[in-house]
Write the structure tokens for this entry.
Amino acid sequence: MAGTTTRWEQARAQERAAGRGGYGAHFAQLIDEGADIEGEARLADVLAPRGVRILDAGSGMGRVGGALVGRGHQVVGVDFDLEILDQSRRTYPALPLVESRLDELTPQTLAAAGHPTTYDVVVCVGNVMILLAPDTEPAVLANLAAVLAPEGRMLVGYALTDAPAATSREYPLDEFAADCAAAGLAVESRFAGYDLRPFTDESAFAVHVLRHAPRAG
């Protein structure tokens, strides 16, 4: 339900209580160390024609959206964590941002911020789907489907086991597929990682490429 505390907020509260820097500090350190943090962006770039509109849903500190801007795409990032949004603006100033929860994101939200209302690729990675507010997953998928261009593709990845945040939910593949179908989306492909490793029953991570489902008749 919109307005309900997200699992992300619960994880952040636990990090602060424990005195840990958490997500933002972790990726800032990786950037300083020169680590490869663009695996998701490389795959999204493969899915996208040149210079298209891409929505980074749950953009966080901007590492995926920023990398896609650098590859020549028209990217808009969406997130609601003010601290992380501020870090994103400092780290990737060329990435436009919209402040919104994904379960409240609409074309009107994007238009009001001066951005397009349809996108050729929608990216929702970084375990966003398992850190939403409880029971909002179907609404989020429907909201993202509403801004996906008719021939567009959506990239969604999340951990099936050993998720980094203790508050993350388990999101079984059959439940995810059913939620996609309810949102008018079809699973085109499933992989075990952003390097396109084949998915198996032992895979700990799932990467999905989605499309609008064909209309009956």
